[in-house]
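Ticket #4471: structure output looks truncated?

Reporter: J.K.
Steps to reproduce: submitted the chain below (532 residues) through the standard prediction queue, then opened the result file.
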Amino acid sequence: MVMVMALASAFAIFIPQSLFASVPSHFLWSDSKGLMTVEATCQLRHEEQNPFFISQKPNSQLNDYSKLKGLGFFGGWVSGKLLDRSLITAKEAPNAADDSQIRVLSVAKNATRPDVLHISEAGDEGYLAKESLQDIGNFVIEIKDAPAFLNLKSPFRIQKSFWQAATEDEKFLAFTCGDIAAPVRYFLFEVYDLAHLDPVAQVGVNLAETKIWDSINVYTPEEANQVVKEEAEHTPPAPQPPTEVPLPSPQPPSEGQEDTPILEGELEYVICTEDKTTGIFAQDLKTKIFSANQFETVIPSQSWDEKRKTTHVEVQFPAREEMPRSGWIPRDLVQLRAECIPLKKTAPSDEDAPVDDSLTTLDPRVSRKDCCKFPTTQRSSQPYTSGILQFRAKRNKGKRRHAGCDLYRSKGEAAVAVASGTVLRGLYYFYQGVFAIEVKHPKFIARYGEVLGKYGPGVAKGKNVVAGQELGYIGKVNSGCCAPMLHFEMYKGSAHGPLTRHRVPPYDRRSDVMNPTDFLKQWEKVQFGQSY
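Returned output as attached by the reporter:
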């Protein structure tokens, strides 16, 4: 393992003040205060390296140890035995090409303790071979017991929660807060519990305050999957305790990230489909092993090594008596009971049903004839039909395809409705300091992305709009990469649920995403007399 201990240069994302009125999901950890809110002045950064590591010799099992040279025993002359799965922090050791200077933060409770002398404990320092330093992102940390002073007063359950280093675009995420000359850096960890596919929170941890790690288990992703599977089958989630922590700020998520609902109480995931039965497959996703019934209750398995990287997810069937009781299913079919639209349609009353984003329920007061305007008041200054601005352009080194067209204009110019319609979702955080608005038009759904955090006059969720009406104002991402633009996406309206589906190739979008290019060219030519 080649280790670069000095943190590489990183770019910062400034978090807009308007963002702090949204979902309570982000915290910073303090040894004296517990969970703290994220200040508006904190900046989110992408870091090449995370200073937290797991010690484990290459190819070893969970019953081995590495030599930790230079411990305090007998003036530092006797080597300690640092157990595998110890959580450590490390920096480059002076004059030691093959070693790193480390400090032990915690020794995992699930580490096997051999009958040898000088077992290293939390607080020990010394020199460790670099080959025994393993990337924190390749492990899952379970907090066995929350620090006692908290008394479990937290918006989420800390005890028996599962933590994994937060990443984006193959880089670690960290908040920098405080004095710009000497900022405090908090590396982010996603927090999971037994009831959710997605993280219930993200918590930033600083190198100097690590009591959150006092009592932990450390697992590989495969081991964590098995632990969660077994615990989810036998232990229902405990009721959430009341919180005395003020509502914190949310994270700036990756492009198009949707709000993730947080479920309280018992597991309520179901197979959400219009079909009466659904095939359940083996892990190869080709071999059908049995059929499950529509709306059957399932328990999704966590999969930290494949989080959001595949179109399928493994689920358990707790009510099934016969074997097998688990298998793989398209993850879009696994939804919370309260959000399953086909299930709502079968209920006696749909008073509390979520907003249906199909096209059949468009408000009758909205005209279907005034289609369509170009979504900017002037022509795009650059062709949206080629290069990185076009639909299907490569993103993230080819791992993802661009799901819309980028229309370059000036910051603050109006983004207008291409047709009449109803606002499905109001301003929500979209990408690198900019926001998005979704509108249900008569024949399609449009997402107007990378706009500023300000509505046009009379625009709000649930409101009707007409063609050419100002929805919002063109923004500019705060990474400095690009000119101001309107990111425009279109959807057929034949599918349900969030438009963004992370780790679902090739677009990370819902299955009914459309190529808007020909539509834009047609509207552009009608409105401006020419098109790209």
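Triage note (M.O.): checked the attachment and the full token line is present. The first helix runs from residue 221 to 234.
Status: closed, working as intended.
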